[in-house]
């Protein structure tokens, strides 16, 4: 599968190379006006559950366990359907997953981008 999936902060200046811009946070980013977001879609349902998000608290020491739990949540039928939608977008254009998280390398956007690129569940 030829996919072009990236991830970055929604607060960063949009770039032409972003292609389709999709917010993958459950909660709208603080201080971001909807007009300034330059979004094509907001898929809050693909984000981690509120319980998982609250447990994680963006603590890098918990990232491995967060990643494992989120990959399990991605097996939910509704999330798998949304993932299929994102994969189909990425087959025809560049796709950028957006998050408000400061540490994007330890975010659901990073996990989701990797999972979508591989097209299957990876655990570790």
TrEMBL record:
It holds the Pfam family DUF488-N3i. InterPro entries: YeaO-like. This is DUF488 family protein. It comes from Amycolatopsis acididurans.
